[in-house]
Amino acid sequence: MTTAAPATRFDGAFAARASRAVPAVIPYFTAGYPRRDVTSALLLAAQSAGCVAVEVGIPFSDPLADGPTVQQTGWTALQQGMTLPLALEQVRDARAAGLRIPVAVMTYFNPVLSLGVEEFAHRAAGHGVDGVIVPDLPADEAGELRTALHRAGLALIPLVAPTTPPERIARIVDTASGFIYCVGVTGVTGVRETIADEALELLDTVGGLTPIPRALGFGISKRAHLLQLQGHAEAAAIGSALLQAIGRASEHDPADVAAAFLRSVSEGPAPEPV
To answer: Could you tell me the pTM of the whole model?
Structure first.
């Protein structure tokens, strides 16, 4: 028996935004980077910068979907002792300090299996997580995790790519909750100069199948990308460019650097909604 998708903070966060507005930002932080103790402060910085939600990436030793920047930050975090349970505790600490925006944990499936699917769902919910993204778990094989997450009140956020066949996209979005993570390129994460036409076509295909918000990720790095996405997506996920900015400014407070970067992408003159 399939457990119905629950209502989460994602629903309220996206509902509060104007229809066809410039997409909101969902920043990606590698848990434990640049220091093991800074994750909670980074999440609060994202909230102060006006982000609609935030992703917490769990470092993993074999990150197949991650480009060089995320791989490097993950390796640094692992060397400093970051683990899935510790990352969840840091989300809990951020909630205790006033974090209100939705949190999605992006993790590979092995750490979830190691902790136990039911235990992971229970602990994530209890620590203030709202949704989970698992890039190496195909939607057709995600039934057990989806059921456990839904019972715990969490969304399982799927990924779709330009290479995903239309009939498969339809099946994936039918079981989705939180938002649909649309992969902007064929390949791994990383900064890119432009948004490909195939990414816009993917977003429009998804938008024709479901009212669930769409977020484009992989390659988003600047405000011009958000303006290009207006009318095609409700959010944009930014990871590599943000992590690079934090890494370059190692002499400064990471939370201050993150907030300044995110404001530079989120704010500024924008065209009227179309």
So the answer is: 0.93
Let me know if residue 244 belongs to a domain. Answer: yes
User: Which amino acid would we find at residue 25?
Assistant: V
- Note whether residue 254 is domain-resident: yes
In angstroms, rounded to a whole number, what is the distance separating the alpha carbons of residues 69 and 74? 8
Active-site residues: which are they? 55, 66
Find all residues with CB under 8 Å of 165, minimum gap 6, and list them. none
In 75-120, the DSSP E strands lie at: 103-106
Range(s) of the domain holding residue 245? 32-266
Question: Residue 233 and residue 179: Cα distance in Å, rounded?
Answer: 11
pLDDT in tens, the chain (274 residues): 567 889 999 999 999 998 889 999 999 999 999 999 999 999 999 999 999 999 999 999 876 656 788 999 999 999 999 999 999 999 999 999 999 999 999 999 999 999 999 999 999 999 999 999 999 999 999 999 999 999 999 999 999 999 999 999 999 999 899 999 999 865 444 445 678 899 999 999 999 999 999 999 988 989 999 999 999 999 999 999 999 999 998 889 999 999 999 999 998 544 443 3
